[in-house]
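FAQ: What does the model actually see?

It sees only this:
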Amino acid sequence: MELGMVGLGRMGGGMTTRLVRGGHRVVAYDPGEEARARAEANGAHAVASLADLVAGLGAPRAVWLMVPAGDVTEQSVVELAGLLEAGDTVIDGGNSLFRDSVRRARDLSERGMSFVDAGVSGGIWGLEEGFSLMVGGEAAAVDRLAPVLETLAPQDGWAHVGPSGAGHFVKMVHNGIEYGLLQAYGEGFEILSSSVYDLDLRQIAQVWRRGSVVRSWLLDLLASALDKDPGLESVRGYVEDSGEGRWTVLSAIDQDVPAPITALSLFARFASRQEESFSAKVIAALRGEFGGHAVRKEDG
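And it is asked to produce this:
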């Protein structure tokens, strides 16, 4: 099959290479010259603009976006809408808010075009292992993309989960679950590292990988990280969030679903970014006021 790929970063670049290896023709665009050169070296036909990408594809066209959610995705969809024709399809593989995907599908439908929202998981490992794909949109558009989806995913690794927005909704919740899993591993290994025992965290991670009920791919990756840096001394404990955790918590509130673990794991990420917590200062000061507890003073 023939496909346009927009965005050739860690995910988009790996997906492009996997598609080329699978026998598909990929016309690839990224604003970065180095990214385009890598795609070209890996067998894609790299172009310097969205207009060139559309011109390089035969109708009916399919263009897959792997760009940051928000303004970049919005601008890309709007520009493509002005370049593509009725019968063409736009696929958003980024982590867009599902409500935006519903709106984009409606807007493109008015032009006779299809919009497919594809939640993509797999990270940098997806090139070799395959990408997990959660796809939303009209059945006809998804069916036409089946050869591409089959190549990108491992066996049984993709599904058409529902109408427009469903793919990004499922990926949103997937990432919310990820927040909780990461937080649980982080807290558990901190308890181990601060205990009275001189524990080898690498050894424990390796043991837990084999037969324990907490074994997982994330644990495999943690074991790898500890092998490289046993004390994680080169890693700063500053944890970003890209939005999906927040949206998962808001959806839980909208749907009256209790999700305390997801919410707390999101707040823990916020706490990781504070050099100094003012709320902790308030608590320390109050303990000093009502109980006479010692209060540590700032230097200077």
